[in-house]
Amino acid sequence: MFDERGPAQRRNERSGALQRTEVRRVWVDLAVAYPRPSGRPPRAVPDGVDLQSRVPGELLGWRRTTTGEWVGWVCVPISQGEEVRYVYQYVAAAALSPREDLRDRR
What we know:
Blueprint: E1 2-3, E2 19-29, H1 30-33, E3 54-64, E4 70-80, E5 83-92, E6 96-98
Antiparallel strand pairs: 1-5, 2-3, 2-6, 3-4, 4-5
């Protein structure tokens, strides 16, 4: 589930019928990917996992769900305090947007 190596060093052999694309930099809106339950007030847990921020990620490919929606197979850094872990997971297309770096403009 977690990979300590980071996005540039990762290898994933479990992608199955993944429709492969070139690796693309994306923004992952974790609040969209992991919505908070409605009606529950937020509670501050300083050393908890931050699933409400927007983080940079790598889109490795796309796959269709059984209901016809698209999900992206992404590598996402998740912070817990000072520690960062890289998670590989399917994320709903609504939580993904293109990320442009300065080097993309050359």
